[in-house]
């Protein structure tokens, strides 16, 4: 049974937006999951103002106690894990096994950060003067506005929300409309864990209204940090907006993630990694494989094995054991179809019996879902792509991957860096020298060796460079720098004014001394 979902500001759901969004099951598009009342820019600003009013009291709660609240969230996630996973399957079409993994990632994030409440360390620093002490402190930034995509509807938001709350900030979260039911569930877990009303707020809004609301909230001094996961194009606009207010946003953007397969690689292992990297979540991850860059001596064998693996893969109903299910939402299906138009005469196709949407006129053997009701698409492997091809240069967010040959490792690294993204990367080899040469020269923020381009652990930094982000990092202790500001304090108890660099004692050395 579907339900109506509204924004939650200060614990109040009374705000009734004028526009309605229908969140449907992408595996059965005629099945309504939720009707979502969309707010406007005024609702977003109101949420930021509510957060501002609530933040100071939350910051006054001792950090170890805030950590206990995060621990409560983790306990509730474990209690509700299967329900939450099945909601992810229903609303965004992620296979059940992946959805369970995503819920575990939310639990892992809570497990890591609950202890950080006791480790928000500053330092006591020795002074250059007597009877004087120097200290550093981490303080919360204030109000964090968090805007996320829906391909990871519970895990990725937690990378922002959990550390932001732990550090004493208040949060206004704008989730993807097509994952609103998942967002509602996440809110309930945090609310029942003990997060006070007004400290965590959820606003459902379309992109235009969100950007206008964020602009107004920044102008009014109501937002101190922006976190955004989404496209590189929108990330550029948010970066420009925040820059006008001398703020540095936390941007986690798109990727054109390369996988280099060397001549000494285990091809079976490389194909297994490529299959998951390229087609897990129907290729709708920022860390999905964009181009497999394969040594010319093994590229034919790689393509043959990759083609066989993709053709044999089970695609369909996400409640079953499948490689991937439907596209997340109709808008991503439409975008994917435009990307398929980039396939040219110089390219060769592999991986399935067709391209585009699977249906009675474009069938795929072994499909387990209802092709007429679900947004199911063929896996597509395109060989012969080169720099300058739209397929090589751009993110394609769907079950579409390119293969490019190379001769030398230097050429492979040049090809890997060429599109200008820098999120994730992978190399398959048994040669440590190749591994470390690749690591030194690849511009990606993350490197995998003999592993998929996709996959994150809660205690490692996650983030990219170039078109993939502004160098900010999520997860692990590194994200604390996104949601705290360093404050330095000096305390002079000498009873007199001691001036730095001027009243410092000196030692007279004999620098002309030579051993006899």
UniProtKB/TrEMBL annotation:
Residues 19-488 form the Aldehyde dehydrogenase domain. It comes from the Bacteria. It holds the Pfam family Aldedh. Its EC number is 1.2.1.3. The active site is at residue 252. InterPro entries: Ald_DH/histidinol_DH (IPR016161), Ald_DH_C (IPR016163), Ald_DH_CS_GLU (IPR029510), Ald_DH_N (IPR016162), Aldehyde_DH_dom (IPR015590), ALDH7A1-like (IPR044638). Keywords: NAD, Oxidoreductase. Gene3D superfamilies: Aldehyde Dehydrogenase, Chain A, domain 1, Aldehyde Dehydrogenase, Chain A, domain 2. Belongs to the aldehyde dehydrogenase family. Homotetramer. This is aldehyde dehydrogenase (NAD(+)). It comes from Microtetraspora malaysiensis.
